[in-house]
Amino acid sequence: MRTYLLVAVIAAVVTYLTTPLARWCALRWGAITAVRDRDVHAIPTPRLGGMAMFAGLLVALLMGSQLAFLEPVYANPRPIFGIVGGAALVCALGVADDIWDLDWLTKLMGQVLAAGFLAWQGVLLYTLPIGGVLSGSARTAVFVTVVSVVVAMNAVNFVDGLDGLAAGVLAIGGAAFFLYAYLLTQNTSRDDYSNLATLVVGVMVGVCVGFLPHNLYPARIFMGDSGSMLLGFVMAAAAIVVTGQIDPAAVVDRVRFPAYVPILLPVAVLVLPLLDMGLAILRRVLQGKSPFHPDRLHLHHRLLALGHSHRRAVLIMYVWTAVLAFGVAALAVLSTTTVLVATGVGVVVATALTLGPLRGSGRAPVPDEAEHATRT
Questions:
Q1: Any residues with CB less than 8 A from the CB of 178 and at least 6 apart, and which?
Q2: Disulfide: which of 76, 163, 264, 338 matches 217 by Cβ 3.0-4.6 Å?
Q3: pTM beyond 0.85
């Protein structure tokens, strides 16, 4: 555990220290989110935060390769190369979009390329946890892997609409995923606790924590598409790795359910982004618009419309993420009944915070403030 925490701290420190450099690059290259009538931020704000995030990811993984505890993880370099290489492609694509505002088709092709590179390096979703473990053909595995990664990247991009929202949601959800992967590894491998998924998620949490001080309201820099797509890519890659690193024959009865459904936790982590993306696409298609046409009806915009302040809306999204993500992660150590009861209590609390008496006690946004500087 201490080794993983060390690598996460390295990622956080590097991200924190390089974010001002990314901000300087954004100002110099013109990657700035201007203030429009529909935006929440009051002054033009630079983006390109994803550059600092990638720096934190890269340095942390390089430093991790020098630690004896993690030697088994680096014994096969292809998965790590696939994750780092794919993340580099995604970050470069996001940087280009943050500067030049690429069209949706170009972005989609770049996302598919990055996901395809990940699959080419052997990070494949060979098993689907749907009613048990189902094995598919190599072509099916590649297709499902690419689709899963692309969906995750766009889901995080959709939810990146308020200062500190996406980074905080992924930090909280990633922490739950980190504990899940670590505990599951302990139960399935008594001699070696090193695990690629645990390492990658720990680094992602560190990256988010390092970026948050610069991104909390009022943000001095946005992560941009270079950051949101990077986080979605890394989360999806870690989820795929989990499905290939758990030996079903070694899973004890107490943890059999979470071991056979490893994709459940990443879905819980991304449930709000996925829900937001799904509703947005459905809403826009029914209105005869492009799925990528911006509007003022995202989940976080609805919280603002309910009368929550900017900070409170973000905190409410944090609470929902924590309830769902840690609820699923608890399946690794607690009985299903206990988890359901605890999660039910958490849902009641989150609902009360969302719709309860605090609503409207902050400054309610005017209609033109409901849309943040997001490209979706």
A1: 4, 198, 201, 202, 205
A2: 163
A3: yes
